[in-house]
Specification:
77% helix; globular; mainly alpha
């Protein structure tokens, strides 16, 4: 019980602590007035963009699966991906959604190695595209904010990403004497899958483009919300400021990014003259829009995942009974 509650307590403490700290620095009355002035039409448009974001994510993962020669229908890809999105907002840290996606894709017929590697490599490509986008837009950021500190960080991160990909692709070079270990054999498979994705231009470039479009789409969603709040923000400002915020949110140190996102948004948009109370409202509304967009994934889970889990439990009980009489009934795949 302690092990189950500890991540919630630690990450929940970080989220609430950061939110409390940010709120202590803003004019709450002004922030409330700003929230009440929100244009509902812009919120609806942001919801549409965030739904498109989920479709782009499913497409990105689907391309990775096909690069790995996995047999997985697009309907199953979209279903499992949406379930993962839902759990990413109800489990502590974004990694929880990835673990659920691995579990469901394994149950849906993928091998364990393909289920794990496809999600891991899709996440790696997503982060690589995010860092690349930040580096590509950095000249615009420097022109906009000449005294911006830490401009060296993201080029270094990009180099680290490239080195990391090369290391992953070389894991099968480990001594043959180590291949008797199950973990090492898994790393060898990961190396081969990494090369299938990143070393084949058709798959790597296609997946990279979809990932870049997804990050740009997120920036546009924030820009639309900023327009709804009547903030003096240019679309280029969101294009260069939102990706670093999203990158920081990928750190699994909070619950669904709450607290981390607010702190990063207030800091980032402060560089372009946005008051802290306006930035905190923008961040909170963006978080709410993200949650509302992800919630239907819970319904998908109940219709596809929840029923399936119950069926599998019954099938496992039946299989255990049949085994006693020498009969085995395999579970049916996810529809």
């Amino acid at each position: 019980m302690i092990k189950r509650l500890l991540p919630w307590l630690l990450k929940g403490g970080i989220s609430f602590g950061l939110i409390a700290w940010v709120l202590s620095k803003v004019d709450l009355a002004s922030a409330w007035d700003k929230a009440l002035s929100m244009d509902g039409a812009m919120v609806l448009l942001a919801l549409v963009l965030m739904q498109a974001q989920i479709a782009l994510g499913a497409l990105r993962w689907g391309l990775v699966l096909r690069a790995l020669d996995a047999v997985f229908r697009w309907t199953s890809t979209a279903t499992v991906y949406y379930i993962g999105v839902f759990f990413s907002i109800v489990l502590p840290g974004a990694v929880g959604g990835d673990a659920v996606r691995m579990w469901f894709s394994r149950r849906a017929g993928l091998s364990l190695a393909t289920a794990v590697n496809s999600v891991a490599l899709e996440r790696a490509m997503t982060v690589f595209a995010l860092v690349l986008l930040v580096c590509l837009t950095q000249p615009i950021l420097i022109a906009r904010i000449p005294d911006m500190p830490g401009t060296w960080v993201f080029p270094v991160l990009l180099a680290v990403c490239v080195i990391g990909i090369l290391v992953l692709a070389s894991l099968d070079k480990l001594p043959a004497s180590l291949h008797r270990w199950k973990l090492v054999r898994g790393l060898v498979q990961l190396a081969g899958d990494t090369r299938k994705l990143f070393f084949h231009p058709a798959w790597s470039l296609g997946t990279l483009v979809v990932a870049l479009i997804g990050h740009i789409n997120l920036s546009l969603a924030v820009y639309v919300l900023a327009l709804g709040l009547d903030l003096d923000v240019h679309v280029l400002d969101t294009l260069v400021l939102v990706p670093p915020v999203i990158l920081i949110m990928t750190l699994p140190i909070s619950i669904a990014g709450w607290g981390v996102r607010e702190t990063a948004m207030v800091t980032a948009f402060g560089f372009v003259g946005i008051a802290a109370d306006s930035a905190i409202v923008l961040s909170i509304i963006f978080g709410i829009v993200t949650m509302v967009t992800a919630l239907p994934g819970g319904l998908v889970f109940l219709l596809a995942g929840g029923k399936k889990m119950e069926q599998e439990e019954l099938a496992e009980e039946k299989a255990a009974g049949d085994l006693a009489v020498g009969v085995h009934t395999p579970p049916s795949p996810l529809p």
